[in-house]
Amino acid sequence: MTHLFIFGLGYTASRVKAVVEKAGWTVNATGSDGDIDFADGDGVRAALDAATHVLSSVPPDRESGLDPALNTYGRDFGRAWYGYLSSTGVYGDTRGAWVDESSPVGTGRRTARAECDALWLRLGARVFRLPGIYGPGRNALDKVRDGSAHRIDHPGQVFSRVHVDDIVSGVMAALTGPAPPGAYNLGDDLPASHNAVTEEACRLLGVAPPPLLTLDEAGLSPMARSFYAENRRVANGKARRVLNWRPRHPTYREGLRSLL
Fold this sequence. Notes:
alpha/beta; about 35% helix
């Protein structure tokens, strides 16, 4: 029987769980909605021993920078398929240039993530590098509706993004196909500014876009503000070639329309 163990049943991993369960897999997971407490060593080790596939969505620890799953249970990993949900933040700032899986990593603000990314690669995992994630309950339409949408006067700034369902389809392609270990960028085909996405959401909802603000005027949190310190475009060609993956939402326009 095919058995998936998930470290960290969050926004994206919970959707992976739903799809693999529908396909008849057995799934155990840690996290607030999981069935095993991360601190339950015996329970986690028993599940790892039974697992044919292991997927982690747990980010680095904020204080130590260590990977909680590998640091706590790495010695208990057996001969399973491994996957890790990482971040395209590992590429750092490229001043808007394109990056692919051969590009240098570890130079940006997410050095701890880059180190954990490298550890999973050395383990032989399929590492999915993800840009900004959006989907049901987490998208520009919701922000426009609740009044929290903003536009920042920051010319030339672009981001890549990906619909959560396209992450799931990419992970499933790797789970069920002959994908070799390595890094895979899962992002859409059209990197764009935050402003362009907000403006499209406003157009779809038939409302005027919010005013342009400076970074200081916007009153962004340190985390939100830090996104504007990096500028890059993320290429998805390897996932297309090796996983035979095609995003159902190739740009933010299709993605937003699907969420109306």
